[in-house]
Write a structure and sequence with these properties.
two-stranded antiparallel ribbon, transcription, D-Maltodextrin-Binding Protein, domain 2, WH_DNA-bd_sf, seven-stranded mixed β-sheet, DNA-binding, transcription regulation, globular, alpha/beta, 12 helices, LysR_HTH_N, Arc Repressor Mutant, subunit A
C-alpha cells in the first residue's frame, strides 16, 4: 500500500528539484526526506532516485510515480472535500498560514466570524514567509495561505492552486514626526532606511522603486518585523515604506508621505484546487473576505 505522505515527498521533489528544497517546503530535515524516499523505493520495489553529483534526481520510474502521486493526492483531497460537502458542515481541522500584517489585522476578525458561524471547525494558524506561501501550500504543509504580491513581483503560479484576490493595500512612505524635506526624492536619498532582509520581495520592490526615481537607498537597518521597522521610524533612526494595513492597525506616531506612483501590494487567499468544494476551505476563505471588507 502506497503511503500518501511519502508520495507527497516524491511529488515535491519533482516540483522543487532538490532534497533540501523538499525539506524546506515540508519542514523535514534533508536526512528525513532521503530516508522516507528509500522506504518508498522499498514499497514499490524499484529505484526512484539516483545520485548525480552531490544531489538526487528522479529516475524514469521516479518521474512516472511522481506524476501518479500528484493525481492520487489530488483525488484523495477531492474525495475528502466531497464527503465533507455531503456532511453539510464545516468541521475538523484546517491549517492556515498568514504573513505578519494579516495576522495583526485581518486574522482576528476572521477567527471571530468562524468561531460564531462554524463552531466545529478548528483553525490552526502559523506564520509564513510570503515567499514560501504557494510552495508550502502545494506541498500540503497548509490548507489555506493568505499571501501577498508586490508591484512587478508576482508570485509564481502553480498548477492546481486557486488564488482568490482580497484587496489592494497601499504602500506608504513613513518618516518620524516633523521630518523636514524638500522633496520625496531628496528625503529618500538623505535618510537611512530600514527594510526587510535581502532576497525578500518587499525589499527587492522597495530598492527597485527607489532606483526608478534615480536614488540608491541607504539601507542601514534590516528587519523582517514591520513593528520593529515602524519603531525605528518613530524614533527618528530611519525611514521606511510600509503597508497601509499596518498603519491602520497599529497607528504609530509617524508622518505619512505618498510614495511616487501610489504603489500597492495585492493580498489574496490561496488553496489547492482539489479542495474547491471543501466546506472548511470555503468557510475560511469567506471569513477572510468578510474581514477584509471590514478592515
Amino acid at each position: 500500500m502506497l503511503n500518501a505522505n511519502r508520495l507527497a515527498l516524491l511529488d515535491e521533489l519533482a516540483r522543487s528539484g532538490t532534497v533540501h528544497a523538499v525539506g524546506g517546503a515540508l519542514s523535514y530535515s534533508p536526512s528525513t526526506v532521503s530516508q522516507q524516499l528509500k522506504v518508498l523505493e522499498q514499497e514499490v520495489g524499484v529505484a526512484l532516485v539516483e545520485r548525480v553529483g552531490r544531489g538526487l534526481v528522479l529516475t524514469r520510474e521516479g518521474r512516472a510515480l511522481a506524476e501518479h502521486a500528484r493525481d492520487i493526492l489530488a483525488r484523495m483531497e477531492e474525495a475528502e472535500s466531497d464527503l465533507a460537502r455531503l456532511r453539510g458542515t464545516a468541521a475538523g481541522t484546517i491549517r492556515v498560514a498568514v504573513f505578519q500584517t494579516a495576522a495583526l489585522s485581518v486574522l482576528p476578525t476572521a477567527l471571530d466570524l468562524l468561531a460564531s458561524s462554524h463552531p466545529k471547525l478548528r483553525v490552526v494558524v502559523s506564520h509564513i514567509d510570503p515567499a514560501r506561501a504557494l510552495p508550502a501550500l502545494a506541498a500540503r504543509e497548509h490548507d489555506i495561505v493568505l499571501g501577498e504580491e508586490y508591484p512587478g513581483r508576482p508570485v509564481a503560479r502553480r498548477a492546481g492552486i486557486t488564488l482568490v484576490p482580497l484587496f489592494e493595500d497601499p504602500l506608504v512612505l513613513v518618516v518620524s514626526p516633523g521630518t523636514r524635506h524638500e522633496s520625496v526624492g531628496e528625503l529618500i536619498f538623505a535618510r537611512a532606511w530600514v527594510m526587510e532582509p535581502e532576497g525578500n520581495d518587499a525589499r527587492q520592490w522597495a530598492v527597485a522603486a527607489c532606483r526608478d526615481l534615480g536614488v540608491e537607498p541607504r539601507v542601514q537597518y534590516e528587519s523582517p518585523d514591520l513593528l520593529v521597522q515602524v519603531r525605528l521610524v518613530e524614533t527618528g533612526h530611519a525611514i521606511a515604506v510600509v503597508p497601509e494595513l499596518l498603519l491602520r492597525r497599529e497607528r504609530p506616531r509617524v508622518d505619512r508621505l505618498e510614495f511616487p506612483g501610489r504603489p500597492s501590494r495585492s493580498v489574496f487567499t490561496a488553496h489547492r484546487a482539489a479542495a474547491d468544494s471543501s466546506p472548511a476551505v470555503t468557510a475560511v476563505t469567506e471569513a477572510f473576505a468578510q474581514s477584509a471588507l471590514s478592515r
